[in-house]
Amino acid sequence: MAPGGFDTGDIPQIILVSFQYGVSSANVDKYTQLLEGIVNPNQCPVRGSFFVTQTNTQFQVVRQLVDRGHEAGVSSMGVATPTTVAEWAGNFTEVKKALVQAGVSKDKVVGVRAPELKFGGTNQVLGMRSKDLNLQYDSSCLNTQFDQGNYLWPFTFDYGQGIPDCTAGSKLNGSFPGVWEFPIADLRFKGVRCASPSGCSPFIKTEKDAYDLFFNAFTQHYNQRTRPPFVMFIDPAWLTDDKQAKGTNQFLQFVGAAYEDTWIITTQQALAWIMDPVPASKVTKFEPWGCQANERKV
């Protein structure tokens, strides 16, 4: 069931464009060009979520993204996946500290994504809850059960039973009230199942192929009665191929122009709606999805 118990027509379709790993002056333009010029139904610019590593990240560049309304989350210090509670906590602490030192408000850094989408299970969640990190959600859990007609809305770890296991990584044992999971559905292209867009790269021959990869996944979410969020996991390798980058941009441009009930927002903005849902007819006035007057497209 969708938050608020709304009927399908009252549920805003959410798209979460998310990036991971290092962000620097060398690659930030590829990310921002993907979203440039696209606006939501309230005429505010669309936003993305950046889950950054300490390695290969210029944190001043990330701060500039946050100043423009994008979200900064944490991944890890490098590409290796932590294992112990201390390792998870240490990685999260160091990356968040670097973001704060660069000028990002600590209250704005609330989300995590594990390296390689390998959810760390109990140890990761305990690491998220360490000290004063205030990390509220994870978006690492990929599961082949999240399929057409069975996509899930984000859920909490309030109860230890009934939580779906992730395809990669570790299991969660116990309950962790107040911690949210934004699950990631895998993709399908011409009968091939891919954990991420880059996993489908060998089969993407044209810009239209890249467009179709995302549009088909989007329509499956949109046509499901509960309209759960469509999480787009974009890794750096995907955007190094020009036809893939262009096809992805074409998809986002089309959806932004053609669907008046679809919103491309940050994960943190999505969580704000989940915790305080309003129907699609009123969401243009929903403050967490708004922007400054000078940012709106006239």
Task: Lay out the secondary structure.
Elements: E1 13-20, H1 28-35, E2 49-52, H2 59-67, E3 71-74, H3 85-101, E4 111-112, H4 121-128, E5 137-138, E6 155-157, E7 176-181, E8 187-189, E9 192-194, H5 207-223, E10 230-234, H6 236-239, H7 242-258, E11 262-265, H8 267-275
Parallel strand pairs: 1-2, 1-10, 1-11, 2-3, 4-5, 5-7
Antiparallel strand pairs: 6-7, 8-9
Helix pairs in contact: 1-7, 3-4, 5-7
CATH architecture: Alpha-Beta Barrel
Count of extended strands: 11
Specify the number of helices: 8
Number of domains: 1
Provide the low-confidence segments as ranges: none
Q: CATH top level?
A: Alpha Beta
Query: Distance between termini?
Result: 36 Å
| CATH superfamily label | Glycoside hydrolase/deacetylase
Major sheet attributes:
5 strands, parallel
Averaged pLDDT: 94
What is the compact description of this entry?
The protein is an alpha/beta fold and 298 residues long. It has one domain (7-293): Alpha-Beta Barrel (TIM Barrel), CATH 3.20.20. 30% of the residues lie in helices and 15% in strands.
Task: Output the keywords.
298 residues; alpha/beta; TIM Barrel; 4-stranded mixed sheet; 8 helices; 11 strands; 15% strand; globular; Glyco_hydro/deAcase_b/a-brl; NodB homology domain-containing protein
